[in-house]
UniProtKB/TrEMBL annotation:
SUPFAM superfamilies: Ribosomal protein S5 domain 2-like. It comes from Hydrogenoanaerobacterium saccharovorans. It catalyses: D-erythro-1-(imidazol-4-yl)glycerol 3-phosphate = 3-(imidazol-4-yl)-2-oxopropyl phosphate + H2O. Its main location: cytoplasm. PANTHER family: IMIDAZOLEGLYCEROL-PHOSPHATE DEHYDRATASE, IMIDAZOLEGLYCEROL-PHOSPHATE DEHYDRATASE HIS7. This is Imidazoleglycerol-phosphate dehydratase. It is found in: Cytoplasm. GO terms for cellular component: cytoplasm.
Length: 192
């Protein structure tokens, strides 16, 4: 099975994360940040990955370290669980959420990169810093080895924009981790 469990403890956070790429979308999320719990739950449900996250962070400072470090650990777990030589590798998906649209295209290539084109109007959604959306996906991309392009061409409601982003990434990953039928790594070079 394509699974990974990682525990990471720093002076700022203590995180235990379990990921099953062949799950059913079961989520058990507790980060101490309500909206972030909602986003990670949506990510699990829409990717079909089982995801357990138990995170304790220095929320008395702000949400930055918790969100960043969960992104790091999720990326590490994804890199550990995936075998790049057996997958479709690419995935793209668009998610409309009422007036907002989010688009994601990605490549599980081993080459981390993030392009992020989304603007948020408000600094916070509950206790969730909207600027941390980009930072979470940067941490995830860097630690998973994924090239990740995220675009929100329009939308007014920040909740809708953020949720559409997490769901678009989830669906793109669901496509990209499917088993390839070509019998080898999907690259003209023969390696990733």
């Amino acid at each position: 099975m394509r699974t990974a469990e990682i525990t990471r403890t720093t002076r700022e956070t203590d995180i235990t994360l379990y990921l099953n790429l062949d799950g059913t979308g079961r989520a058990d999320i507790n980060t101490g940040i309500g909206f972030y719990n909602h986003m990670l739950t949506a990510f699990a449900v829409h990717s079909g990955f089982d995801l357990t996250v138990k995170a304790k962070g220095d929320l008395e400072v702000d949400c930055h370290h918790t969100i960043e470090d969960v992104g790091i650990v999720l990326g590490q777990a994804f890199a550990k669980a995936i075998d790049r030589s057996t997958i479709v590798r690419f995935g793209s998906f668009s998610v409309p959420m009422d007036e907002a649209l989010a688009e994601c295209s990605l490549d599980i290539s081993g080459r981390p990169y993030l392009v992020f084109n989304a603007h948020f109007n408000a600094p916070l959604i509950g206790q969730y810093d909207t600027s941390m959306t980009e930072h979470f996906f940067l941490s995830f991309a860097n630690n998973s080895g994924i090239t990740l392009h995220i675009n929100v061409p329009y939308g007014r409601d920040d909740h809708h924009k953020a949720e559409a982003i997490y769901k678009a990434v989830a669906h793109s990953l669901k496509i990209a981790v499917q088993k390839s039928n070509n019998g080898g790594v999907l690259s003209s070079k023969g390696v990733l």
